[in-house]
Amino acid sequence: MKLLRIFCLYPCALAFALAAILIGFFSQAHIPEGRAFATIIPLAGGYLPATIVGDSWWEDRTPTPRVPANLMPAARPSGEKFVPLLGTQDNFPMLGLGLCCRATAYDFHSVSRSVLWYLLKGGRHLDAAYLYMNNEAIGHAIAAAADRGVPRSELFVTSKLGPRFFSGLSPEVELKLMLQQLGLDYLDLVLLHHPEGIGGMIGKCANGTAAECRANAWVKLSALRAQGLIRNLGVSNFQISQIQPLEALGLAPVSVNQVQYNPWVPDWQQDVVDYCQKKGIVVTAWSPFQGTMMQHASLFTVQSLQEVARAKGKTVAQVMLRWALQKGVVAIPGTSNPAHMDENLAAYSFELTAGEMAVIDGVRSDPKAKGFVAIGFEKNDS
Questions:
Q1: Is the pTM of this model over 0.90?
Q2: Which residue in 106, 132, 261, 348 is the catalytic one?
Q3: Is 132 considered catalytic here?
């Protein structure tokens, strides 16, 4: 009995107590799932999360280098490409900086330095979200870049509103708070972040069905668009059956669908992309290098991709980004490494042949593709 207590009861009790503490810690936040991600993702990457140790702890520890005080803006990338958006015809830069889902995406110093580096290197498209809980850092960097000569008028800032805030007056209240955090007068693009909630459970809308909540959010955000607080509206992780009711409302057009997209996607995800492109809805690819972290690493070991990269004198990452561009898909790779930003933006500067594109298309038949996991963009019939 004593051994049972030592090896089972005590550890189990400790685990339950720890779980209860974490649940309480997360639930106290304005966006509980945001605090959870901002805690768990850094821990998974071997970093102490700012949600526990504070932002100041990271100031001298972040791997993202300080931006030199005398560094001025570089020219915009050679060969930069844009796609027009439904309704406004705004030019949407086809490469952007994703601001989530890596260990250095959640503390103030890493995020603000990353954004400032990117803007000074000529990048202009920032992909943010209310869920990421890093708006203040992004806003700080935008202001710092403006002080060095990067005007707001050149930026394209995307953000997203999660299902938790789809009902009632929440879309208007939270959108205005988002703008305040970012220090901006308007957003270039606002997306409904998910049709129902992560896994259909986490962060879901509490008042009404998922479809009713989405319709309410679209009505409220369309009104804010008419007021000039938003220029374009879109969705993220939506399937065809969830896009069509929003189109039927006859309000702001659905201009973008941001989904997980890369050469390994299963047929049902490709069907969503095909529908959007046929309708003139721009597709933005989050996770353009694969799904989970392990799959991300796996992609770079595919022999056919390595061969294309060697032939072009480029990296596999650059080849993947160029493949997306030539598919007419916007890509938002996330990085806090200035060298990787240069590498990513250089994807504008070369082209793949039809034969090389066919080789990359063929990656879907690679045995590694069978392990593809859609995280966040899963089948959802709500």
A1: yes
A2: 132
A3: yes
